Records
---
Amino acid sequence: MSRMIADCRRFESDNNCSLTMIGEEQELINAAAQHAVSAHGHQDTPELREQLRGLLEPEDSYIAGTRQPEPFPA
Ligand SMILES: [Zn+2]
């Protein structure tokens, strides 16, 4: 099973978060949900997890360094 990326650099955030997580999808959803709660003040809900799932990117699209952030999708 291929790994996926959840990349906080991709989105604008209050704390300019630079965290990038890579892992298999279910691990990554769990880790990203915990991070969204602890670092970004989200509520860990099925809706949040569904949204996170839609934001994952393939591992081989990883780009090192900085990334131009875009607004977080509402
Ligand atoms: Zn973050």
---
Amino acid sequence: MTAPLRAREPITVPVALGDRAYDIVIGRGIAATLGQTIAKLRAGARTVIVTDENVASHHLAAAEAALKQAGVASSRIVVAPGEGSKNIPTFERVCEEIIGARIERGDLAIALGGGVIGDLAGFAASCVRRGIDFVQVPTTLLAQVDSSVGGKTGINSRHGKNLIGAFHQPVLVLADTALLDTLPPREFRAGYAEVAKYGLLGDAGFFAWLEQNWRDMFAGGPAREHAIAVCCRAKAAIVARDERETGERALLNLGHTFGHALEAGCGFSQRLLHGEAVALGMVMAFDYSARKGLCSAADAARARAHLAAVGLPTHVREVPGGVPGVDALMGLIAQDKKVKRGALTFILVRGIGQAFIENNVDPADVRAFLTDAVA
Ligand SMILES: NC(=O)c1ccc[n+]([C@@H]2O[C@H](COP(=O)([O-])OP(=O)(O)OC[C@H]3O[C@@H](n4cnc5c(N)ncnc54)[C@H](O)[C@@H]3O)[C@@H](O)[C@H]2O)c1
Ligand SMILES: [Zn+2]
């Protein structure tokens, strides 16, 4: 993991899921090989690219050209950008257009975009003709290290996020790190919170490496592919052991219980992006763990210092317009599906790289902690 960075050969990370095993291929510029890769994977398959308007403006023409060059037929479905597209009307439209494009079992849908497109297109693929295969071409950092891997797909309900969905694994993930060059810096930074998460939850060596190498990663140097590969390997290993989140996969929710409450409290708006909420949530998970004597204050301070160094928010006062009060936050935490018989489940830490699942968190303790944190 701390090996010297050399030639920028694509890195392949296998996801070991038996007859649904697939590869994540990570490399700079590899979207140009999309056509050849698909022709090799599924000779004669037709494809339909699902993307959003922003991604289309930067990367759709090149993706279509790469397919055409290898003789792969493709059509396109372009939806509006943003979380709003993870809804039933857009889902219906995507399904109808996939069917209208005469995509059959044996053909492929291609999700070209961030987590919104991956979740929406993946869910449509899981439903059309009782399931067609799909390829993820993630275009945000968050999607390359998190949402494109592991097979969770879905859309939002009026009752909450991601409540309508399915497990549907892709047949290939092609993560071209050059696609991230067009990502707005704030989106890149937000995705970085999930990168740091892998170090903080289970890999202290990786966290130390990030402290040294994050600038090269942001600048598009070889550290970027390396870091993405480390994250994908970590997620692939966890998913292979616990695909349906009956246990260990929950560790990936480090920072997400506090984070979701803050995100929901801000109305899932541009005031607080998901990754920014996760950064705040991870700082809170460390601070809470330190307060309970589980983790050293030094480790909590180190986690906060790194997230602050890359420009992520680490205190709720940095959220423009502020966050809801303690009562509202407690209500949002209680709504979270991780509540059982009055006790809360949190991912807590014994130090950097040492997260664990705690099923017995006392809501009164959390309230006392939040009262100080939000003050
Ligand atoms: N399935 C999972 O396991 C999983 C895990 C984490 C998050 N998610 C979901 O992922 C979604 C968030 O994903 P996201 O942060 O990627 O958001 P996103 O897909 O909305 O992308 C963020 C913004 O960047 C734009 N964009 C994307 N790629 C670009 C590029 N290369 N250049 C320029 N602009 C680009 C998009 O149009 C959008 O405006 C949420 O809906 C969340 O629920 C799913
Ligand atoms: Zn997340």
